[in-house]
Amino acid sequence: MINPLSDSALLHIFKKSSRNPKLIGTNEGITVEYKQSFGWASMSDYFKAMAAFANREGGYIIFGIKDKPHEFLGLFENALDRFENIDNQVWSTNLREHFSPEIKWEKRCFNFDGNNFGIIYTYPAKEKPVICKKDNGELRKAAIYYRYNSQNSEIDYPELHAIIEYEKQKVNEQWMKTIRQIGDLGVDRMALLDLNSGKMSGENTSLYIDETLLDEISFVQEGSFVETGGNPALKVVGHVQTVV
To answer: What 3-state DSSP class applies to 137?
Structure first.
């Protein structure tokens, strides 16, 4: 997967218009929104756009492009300093206070044709819909924002229905994958681990993991293992005796 904030990815957006080299050649749309400057007073507007992107395909907020027409301006002095000094941890904490599930994002400054631009990229949410948790400026509690062409609006029924059906399909696919694994291995060779209690229950026996050890273990998904390095992991070899 290409890094969405790499130079090569950004140069697909940052190109001069064939009609006027002072204008950007990429229009606002499902994945791109332009802002003339950056200021803390518009934070709720930025959050709304990020939630809308997260509920669709992800997308860019680009600071330093004039509203109409979309002219290359860049960020200068105070606006550039404010953007460069964004505290990622504070920004993420504010997002978590306003939305759930969590919104994943990244930022960078990008120099194009001698001007500096601020860019925030929001990834599509792994679990949808992302829902607003509190009122604040542009934000309304319980609202679900969605990116429609070049607008961030509260979601309509057809798009919400599609999201719900897609999430149900993902759950069904996970269940089918688990059932196929059980079928391949056999019920007598399977065990279930309760991550809350630390109990692993199988057909013939049960294994309990001490809470202190449970906190230190990282359970890794299939395909995420490495030969060296990484977080502590648990490897069980041979037979484990039950202990009271």
So the answer is: coil
Query: In whole angstroms, what is the distance from residue 75 CA to residue 59 CA?
Result: 20
Rounded Cα distance, 146 and 156, in Å: 8
Which residues neighbour 45 within 8 Å (Cβ) at sequence distance 6 or greater? 137, 138
Dist CA 39 CA 37 (whole Å): 7
- Which positions of the chain have pLDDT values less than 50? 221-225, 242, 244
For the entire predicted model, the pTM comes to 0.76
Distances (CA, A) of 128 to 13, 51, 165, 177: 27, 10, 11, 21
**Rounded distance between C-alpha atoms, residue 120 and residue 42, angstroms:** 14
Structure tokens at 144: 């679900």
- Interval 139-197: pLDDT, tens: 999 999 999 999 999 999 999 999 999 999 988 888 888 788 877 877 777 777 777 77
Strands of 42-132 (E only): list them: 59-63, 99-100, 105-112, 115-122, 131-132
Burial-class residue 148 by CB neighbours within 10 Å (0-12, 13-18, 19+).
middle
